[in-house]
């Protein structure tokens, strides 16, 4: 008997009634570990109705009251972070240290949201005109939808949910159907923290659930993270239906290594940023751009380090890289390795024959390195989202920069150099939303905001931090005059004899 993973609506688990389910795997064994319910239109209706019913109460809860729930949630997450990390590893496959890192980055966003009382302060202009005051207030949007990808099943929901709640909204989360248990665990902790029923709901499923949220008139905004084609679809459909939408998409992140860089530091960075979480990170480095003449030496150093990487079951503390998330994803990533060979890239390390320390049926693919990759090859143009790192060669800084700026994605990038002026020029001219200087994965801390440019983000708000608070509120400006009739002789600005 496999487990059944049900929706969470109005403060309790609710079994699916649509008659559709999906398999959830243990990627390290290849076995189906659970069935997750897929929502149909009736369940979408039920979840949105619960969130709508809870809205007046939650919107009317004082800032102190909302913050108390978020503080309690933070404490519970902190106390039970290992449990959550194990849930992530069990369904995603990433090693537990990576899962723990994801949980820690998620908690950071809860801590930010605990500052709601400070962050929701409006402006006030006394006496803007005689006896007239003008002030702004930030109000919640209403019911908001959050749709998240498989690769960070705890962290990405936590990019949005705490901030949305802090701002007084109620939420329906549609997590990835590939690893849905983390979302339910978050719902349980929020309930334990004192969040009233209906304020946070989890709806499992696929396109049917997503479309239901995108079309529902009571859903006022949608935060989406996933691949670019779906992000574009969600943005277009949601905005056509009058919703506020931020839709974060895919990536092809380049890491430039200039000739004066510390090559050992750069090689360490390329390996951890290329193969951490088996490359299933939207901020993973997927292309190293080696600027002449460092290519051969850098490739040798990266190769040396890759051969030491231990691939195995994420639950084993010795493993450094786990399996891919599903059999289908494994097949897709492996097909890119085949294509890279056919297209003429140099296969420096072949991960297809990996001997993993784990069950035979696991979705294993070892770290793979292509050298002499050129634009036009599918390993260069496409987001592979697996442990496949490409090295492209560039003659100089300008060629490296032009390569990045010609790419349709613009999520993250990094430059490795000892030259401050080169780094400054890079950060100024590169057309990418998040830039690292000698930092390979420049994910902004919770009090900045996360977002790419170009095809990596549709909409104009980045995720979490100040832009998150901006996204989850709308501003009202009040212009107010209180005539004081006791001050005889004071000009109140009214026409005489009115
Ligand atoms: P995905 O696009 O397949 O799925 C994302 C969400 O959309 C899931 O909840 C899924 O159920 C839903 N979905 C899938 N197909 C749909 C359809 N046809 N219509 C409506 N909804 C649909 O992405 P994924 O494979 O889960 O995640 C990996 C992708 O997410 C990568 O492209 C990665 O770069 C991207 N990602 C981006 C960021 C970022 O911040 N930019 C962060 C994490 C992941």
From TrEMBL:
Keywords: NAD, Oxidoreductase. The keyword Oxidoreductase applies. CDD domains: ALDH_F6_MMSDH (cd07085). The keyword NAD applies. Pfam families: Aldedh. Its EC number is 1.2.1.27. Residues 1-20 are annotated as: Disordered. Residues 1-10 have a biased composition (Basic and acidic residues). Residues 20-478 form the Aldehyde dehydrogenase domain. Gene3D superfamilies: Aldehyde Dehydrogenase, Chain A, domain 1, Aldehyde Dehydrogenase, Chain A, domain 2. PROSITE patterns: ALDEHYDE_DEHYDR_CYS. PANTHER family: MALONATE-SEMIALDEHYDE DEHYDROGENASE (PTHR43866). This is methylmalonate-semialdehyde dehydrogenase (CoA acylating).
